[in-house]
Each structure stands twice: as structure tokens, then as C-alpha cells.
Amino acid sequence: DGGITQSPKYLFRKEGQNVTLSCEQNLNHDAMYWYRQDPGQGLRLIYYSQIVNDFQKGDIAEGYSVSREKKESFPLTVTSAQKNPTAFYLCASTNPSGTDTQYFGPGTRLTVL
Amino acid sequence: EDQVTQSPEALRLQEGESSSLNCSYTVSGLRGLFWYRQDPGKGPEFLFTLYSAGEEKEKERLKATLTKKESFLHITAPKPEDSATYLCAVRGGATNKLIFGTGTLLAVQP
User: Smallest Cβ distance to A106: which of B42, B89, B97?
Assistant: First the structure.
């Protein structure tokens, strides 16, 4: 059963901590994305990767870091430099050679204590 | 500036009461308009992709249409299970990134 998984579903972070959100896909998609969703705002792009070992900053990359060592995996680290990290984080993937449609995972809700 | 505006922000319907959601966009060189459904606490679920003005797509009680400036998501005889937030996004412009609207929260009462 193909799809995108994100873990954990809920994550709590103390001030000054770095935390890593997991995103895995078995759709054989080349491109993967991280978005942040806040109430009353559209999804905002944090980072994206179109191919293994390469990634680009999105519109709000400050305070975040990513890696893309495997095609299936695109973890996001929220660092202590991110001033307001409490949000719903969504991972997506797409196959650029196809319809370009992005498919989303179930999301991780991060709360700063 | 590339932009997507959805209206209304919220819509309450009675079961069976048909209506439409609007997605207005400004982007140069549209390369696709996407509709998603999002339930509370979950990731968006893909519904439709439209590529050119005049194109229409249907799925159960939903029908999406596209013009050069906007898209409509028509909901015919909605049921309570259609209650969700509906998101619109466009791809195009200089960056070719996906730009999302803020969504329309639909509540269908029995």
C-alpha cells in the first residue's frame, strides 16, 4: 500500500531543543517537500528536494534544516533558531515527470512547551 | 505577485443545499490548479487538477471548473461527510512553486 508516512503525529519541544520530524514515502517519487501550516494562513514551503543529495530553501527556511540521503526519506530538523515553531508540519511528494500533483502525508503537530 | 484567494472563508450549508466555493488566482503561466480536501488534524487529500480554461472534472458530488482568472468547486446535494476545509493551489509564475490559498471551511448540517 503506497503512501507517505510522517512521524511522530504529535511532538513536544522544550525551548532550546532541536527536534527532527520524519517523512518517508514508498511511491517512488523523486521530489519531496516540507510545508508549515498555521491557522488562517496558506501552506508555506520550508524546503524541497527534487533529487537525492540535493535540496533547496523554500519561502521560510530560516531555523530549519533538511537532508536527502535516500530517495524515500526527507527528514526535517526544527532547530532552536526557529523563533515560533509551534505549527502543523506537512510533508509531500510528487513525480515531476507525471502530473506534478503533490500528495501529502498525515502531518506532525509540533508544540513548544 | 503570484496570489491565490479563496472565498468564502467559511460556509455553512444544510444537507442537500448545493453551493460553490471560489478560488481566484493571479499567476503568470498557469501550469495547474489543484483542489484538496483537508479534515481536521490530517494532511490534505488530493481531489482534482485542472490545467486549462474550460476544463471541468467531477468526482461524486464535487465538480471543479476553471477559467483564466478563477476556479469553482461546485458541491451538489452535499452530505455531512463533505464537511472539511477545501484548499486551492496553483502552480506557475517565475518560481513554478505551488501557491496555496487559505482554504474554505465547509460545514454541512444534517
Answer: B42
Average pLDDT for residues B47-76, to the nearest whole number? 96
CB distance B43–A104 less than 8 Å? Answer: yes
CA dist A112 and B39 (Å) reads 23
* Cβ pair B82, B69 in contact under 8 A: no
> By CA distance, what is A47's nearest residue in B?
B97
- Chain A CB contacts of B97 under 8 Å are 45, 58-59
Stretch A39-60: mean pLDDT, rounded? 94
**Gap between the Cα atoms of B109 and A76, Å rounded:** 39
Distance between CA atoms of residues A75 and A91, nearest Å:
9
Q: Which of A42, A45, A105 sits opposite B43 (nearest CB)?
A: A105
Given pLDDT bands bounded at 50, 70 and 90, which one contains residue A97? low
Is A101 exposed, middle or buried, given 0-12, 13-18 or 19+ CB atoms closer than 10 A? middle
Q: Number of helices (H) and strands (E) in chain A: give both, helices first.
A: 0, 11
B51 vs B95 pLDDT, higher one = B51
The mean per-residue pLDDT over the stretch B8-24 comes to 98
A-B interface: how many C-beta pairs under 8 angstroms? Answer: 51
CA distance A99 to A46: 22
Average pLDDT, chain B: 95
Residue A17 to chain B, least CA–CA distance (Å): 24
Residue with cell 455531512: B80
